[in-house]
Amino acid sequence: QVQLVESGGGLVQAGGSLRLSCATSGLSFSNYIMGWFRQAPGKEREFAAAISRSGFQTFYADSVKGRFTIARDSAKNTVYLQMISLKPEDTAVYYCAANPLFSFARANEYDAWGQGTQVTVSS
Fold this sequence. Notes:
Radius of gyration: 13 Å
Largest sheet: 7 strands, mixed
Distance between the termini: 40 Å
């Protein structure tokens, strides 16, 4: 029933931008912290950004702070990740996730995940 579908990934040059979208269904959107995680080849999945249930509070990994912006649209049950000034080290599969609990950055507390969208940043 719960479904998260990411879109917007692609290939960009270093310094470019992308806007990822995560369309959700089957959940009460406003009851979840929403987050973005990413996983580069050969590396563990890592936290990138999260947004509170109200949308009033955001939290970012140090590696993306100042370059990425997370937002949510309650009318569309959709969360976004605007990425600018992309670097080759941002290359990863980006996953959208929903968290019914309290932590912004702990992956274990997120219980619904999308399939991911590939972001590749060339140098």
